[in-house]
Design the sequence.
């Protein structure tokens, strides 16, 4: 185990991406994640990569499309409205099966919104704002170490599945500091090895080991071919739904209240559970670690004989609640505790609201 | 057991430095810790605050707090806003060099620290936050005396090494 260092979330995320194999970063500064492009501007050149400040997030995602098509391992980041600008490119990347890693350090919305932490990008990340049938695996870590471990694995995962992989953090995780153990750098794919490692990439006709020409594209004018292509993509997505889905369940047995929360909110719920325990109320937690694929199966673990309330706890107006309802499948009504716009509740506020919900049920 | 600390003042008073230095010390003691700064369109003279949660054993569940074991206020607006945040029986550290109002609560321990006057005696008024930090650390024991010395040696190294002797004096300047 590496020695722990005290790091700001954003800087730890950037370092984890580099150690995980990312060598190219295209971005445009936006609070609360501007430390990431700053870090990348300083570090990537030293580590055999390149940093480029794009003219906008639209530029950044399309530079990503180009660079990753040529086999470059790209990590990009932004915050909510910046991610919104990237959505068209994400659809193109998925269609063309071009990998990259995308980090959203989210803030309050809609619109330009504010700069304080938010989780109202749940739909944006899990449903996507780009056109067409596509999916992007999205992780929602709850602390800096977990985020580092996920971001570290993301560049190779993206290569393996030939699809973008996304991470949803929030402004609080980006700005706070925690001790973190950084993993050892992964072996880098050298430029001369890209053609062999990524036979689909645009490495030049002469570099192709098998002499085959390749094209990276998302235009398929014949509907038969497009349908066939999308069906092929969805075979992959259905496989990923089974292989990637991750969650954590805490104290579900005998729990009267079950919180469902990801990221920052799951940490508030953990403390709310302690406050409730002091009042003699047993509470549990389902924490999705992937939000797409969503861990619907986790809801079969609920002790429906004991549980009176399932509460989706969010920094949004109940976006995740829709997935929670699918997971619960009518076995119990689903309730919501939320703040939004950059406001964060205290753990005692969450506990008090949960008590009110529980009392109304009895 | 967790210890929850809150630091507030204006930008430039070393608020975030105080919080970070506790976090460094806790990490050196292998204790789980979180440091959460306020962030926003802030600048020198604007408001600044941060929260530090140190745990003795299990990981820190929640970096956001609703009450603190100890609160440090470095200017008057922070006293007015955050006095209520001290939990009953907790400690409130007041920078009495520039705060002329008295806290109103009687269920907490108030520790008035004349940071600027004491820092001046140590050789620089710029060590005012270290005077306060020393008072907090020695009074609460959130990190050990040795850890605090170690943190100061790390933070005040390189181009800042010349400040270390003054900061070490400042750390011990307030009599608790």
Sequence:
């Amino acid at each position: 185990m590496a020695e722990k260092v005290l790091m700001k979330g954003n800087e730890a995320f950037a370092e984890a991406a580099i150690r995980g194999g990312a060598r190219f970063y295209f971005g445009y500064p936006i609070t609360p994640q501007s430390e990431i492009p700053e870090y990348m501007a300083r570090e990537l050149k030293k580590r055999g990569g390149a940093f480029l400040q794009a003219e906008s997030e639209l530029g950044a995602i399309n530079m990503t499309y180009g660079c990753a098509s040529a086999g470059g391992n790209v990590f990009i980041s932004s915050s909510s409205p910046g991610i919104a600008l990237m959505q068209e490119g994400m659809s193109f990347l998925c269609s063309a099966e071009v990998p990259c890693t995308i980090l959203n350090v989210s803030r309050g919305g809609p619109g330009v919104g504010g700069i304080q932490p938010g989780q109202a990008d749940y739909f944006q990340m899990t449903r996507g704002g780009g056109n067409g049938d596509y999916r992007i695996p999205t992780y929602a870590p709850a602390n800096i170490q977990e985020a580092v471990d996920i971001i570290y694995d993301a560049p190779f995962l993206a290569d393996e599945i030939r699809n973008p992989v996304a991470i949803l953090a929030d402004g609080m995780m980006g700005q706070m500091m925690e001790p973190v153990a950084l993993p050892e750098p992964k072996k880098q794919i050298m430029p001369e090895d890209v053609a062999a490692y990524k036979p689909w990439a645009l490495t030049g006709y002469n570099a192709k080991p098998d002499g085959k020409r390749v094209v990276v594209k998302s235009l398929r004018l014949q509907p038969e071919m497009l349908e066939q292509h999308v069906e092929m993509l969805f075979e992959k997505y259905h496989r990923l739904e089974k292989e990637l889905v991750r969650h954590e369940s805490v104290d579900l047995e005998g729990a009267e209240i079950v919180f469902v929360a990801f990221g920052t909110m799951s940490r508030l719920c953990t403390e709310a559970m302690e406050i409730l325990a002091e009042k003699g109320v047993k509470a549990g937690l389902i924490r999705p670690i992937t939000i797409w694929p969503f861990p619907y199966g986790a809801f079969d673990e609920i002790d429906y004989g004991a549980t009176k309330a399932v509460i989706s706890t969010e920094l949004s107006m109940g976006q995740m609640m829709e997935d929670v309802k699918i997971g619960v499948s009518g076995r119990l009504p689903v309730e919501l505790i939320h703040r939004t716009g950059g406001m964060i509740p205290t753990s005692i506020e969450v506990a008090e609201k949960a008590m009110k919900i529980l009392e109304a049920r009895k | 057991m967790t210890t929850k600390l809150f630091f507030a003042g204006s930008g430039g008073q070393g608020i975030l430095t105080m919080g970070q230095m506790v976090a460094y010390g806790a990490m050196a003691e292998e204790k789980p810790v979180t440091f959460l700064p306020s962030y926003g369109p802030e600048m020198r003279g604007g408001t600044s605050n941060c929260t530090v949660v140190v745990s003795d054993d299990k990981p820190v569940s929640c970096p956001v707090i609703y009450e603190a074991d100890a609160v440090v206020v470095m200017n008057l607006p922070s006293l007015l806003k955050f006095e209520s945040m001290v939990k009953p029986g907790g400690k409130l550290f007041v920078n009495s060099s520039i705060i002329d109002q008295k806290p109103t609560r009687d269920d907490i321990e108030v520790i008035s620290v004349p940071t600027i006057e004491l820092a001046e005696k140590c050789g620089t008024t710029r060590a005012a936050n270290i005077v306060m930090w020393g008072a907090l650390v020695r009074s609460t024991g959130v990190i050990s005396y040795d850890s605090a010395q170690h943190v100061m040696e790390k933070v005040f190294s390189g181009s800042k090494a010349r400040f270390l002797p003054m900061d070490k004096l400042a750390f011990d300047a307030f009599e608790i």
